[in-house]
Predict the 3D structure of the following.
Amino acid sequence: MMIIDCHQHLPTMKEGRTLEDSRDILLQELERSSVDYAILIPDNMPVSEIGSLDDVLRLAENDKRLFVMGTIDIQKDQERQLQKLDSLFQARRIVGVKIFPGHDPIYPTDKRLLPVYELCVKHDLPIVIHTGANPKNPQVAKYNDPKHIAKIAEAFPTLKIVIAHYFWPKVEYCYELTKPYGNIYFDTSGLADKEVVEETGLDKIEKVLTSTAKERPNNVVFGTDYAMCDIKEHISLIESLEIGNELKARIFFKNSIKTFDLKLE
């Protein structure tokens, strides 16, 4: 079965390692884990250990297995970044935009994000929203609470919104609050991570994934949050669900192709 990982990052650079080295490590891991395609998410800073948008675009340019997510920091030179994202969308060099409420002190309802949402609607490609706990700073979860995302889904009914990480550990709360909105999608990234499993409970994770797959079969996409999280553990999590092979195929690759409008070669 084909596998598309829609939520990956380059491994962080260690002493003596270049971004090119990190890309090669990632590609080796894709091969070992039998992942056919991946969407790389850059940092939203111009200099980063996991690569800026420009870095990741350059590194992925000549590899048909790699797609790139756009990123933006609305706190800095927003107009220039919006113009750049629009150009990248038009050139089909990005397949969506990721925002980082919680990492950044912004809410999804921040008015400065409205042009970003409008841009995604214009190109019919998704906005991906970071959610979930940060054990070192639990207060930041207030920024990415799904109650804010529900407001955006209602205000932009044609905007495809992908909730990353199911707002762990409150995965059931996340799903129950947002499932009425047909334009909200969910990625599985991080859900097989040891820390997430311990804080959330494997039974709750399996239950909410099973419910989502059965009730919203077109709205779950496979992601891992590599290199922070293990790819094979996430594959095993989906394979363990009692949902049948067709629903697993939708999660592993069919939904990602449609949601991100991927052109596979």
In short: The longest strand covers residues 4-8.
